Amino acid sequence: MPDASFISFTGVSKSYDGVHYVVEDLNLDVRKGEFLSLLGPSGSGKTTTLMMLAGFESPTQGEIRLDGKRLDDKPPHLRDIGMVFQNYALFPHLTIAENVAFPLSVRHVSRADQKARVKRALEMIELPHLANRRPSQLSGGQQQRVALARALVFEPSVVLMDEPLGALDKRLRETMQYEIMRLHRELSLTIVYVTHDQAEALTMSDRVAVFSDGRIQQAATPGELYENAQNAFVANFVGENNGLIGRVASASDEWATLALADGNIIRGRCEPGLTEGDEAMLALRPERAHIPSAEGSHVDEHSNVVRARVEELVYCGDHHRVHLKLGTRDNLVVKLPNTQRHALPADGSTVDVAWRHDDCKILAMSASISVSTPLSSTPSSTSITTPATAGAN
Ligand code: ADP
Ligand code: MG
User: The pTM is what?
Assistant: First the structure.
């Protein structure tokens, strides 16, 4: 039982002002040893969720349990939870060793024990030689590793991280991602990790809960989110997507057809609940579509085929991005891997674009834009690039 839900949120809602919910009816279980990310744009309620788990905020409704026990009345320092924030939050007047020792001294660990544990923690982050420096004498990446050591030194059963790599440059961020993944594996940690960066969430996590407007849109493995998004928000936020809008022409529980603006009828997988006449979005990854004439391949009856005009070809090294126009309104991007021995389509030419029925989905527009959270904006349903970087906070 504790394996299934080491941490559990049940019906958790949070309002700061008594009028608007910033987290609404959150139900989420985290398994022991799991690396779970909360992914969503700025303002979607990720930090608030983490703060309730840490004990710095309390839920307006619902309950949070850790290892079967309710957390509600437990102050933060009794929750057996380590935390890492974006801004390191090291004490500037203490040395690195004293910073790392801090959680141990507030827990009244003996001096000798403290020394041994700090030494081990600094070795773990490969900075034992900097024990006597002050934070200002360390680089940003080093400071963040110290923050990590401080969060882990008292061997908490859960570690919470709120955009811990947000202040680091790209190279260092990637190094630290692997560092955190290594520690997760080696120490069998349970980690709840907040990020607005979908690539980071996909790389690091066992499972990702996608947030929008204080609600979980979908919680699933990275592969499942990418291959099997359940609504338009998730398809647009996780990975790159061709999000063409149309009307449902027919639907069963598993398959639907969508009439696009230019009259094309697209067949694809769907979720139960779509109804004829609904507005819906085609979710099609750019690498799943291809241009048969460029590859000398043929198309079978299990594929959608549309005619489109080549607007622009962009060379991207390992692939070409082909920007196409379908009718007058819809844009389509196709990624062609750079292994073709056949000619690329010419600018301005009209070509067939094809993809398999089971390589695309027909998805309901996100139905969760709640009237009680007016501060948040509606996700753009026609965007073909991920808004993840635009949502940085
Ligand atoms: P995220 O971490 O996803 O960016 P937050 O949980 O920080 O989102 O914020 C969710 C919403 O709650 C935002 O609209 C934010 O302005 C609001 N909010 C966050 N903290 C407070 C607070 N202490 N008091 C009032 N409103 C808050
Ligand atoms: Mg936040």
Answer: 0.86
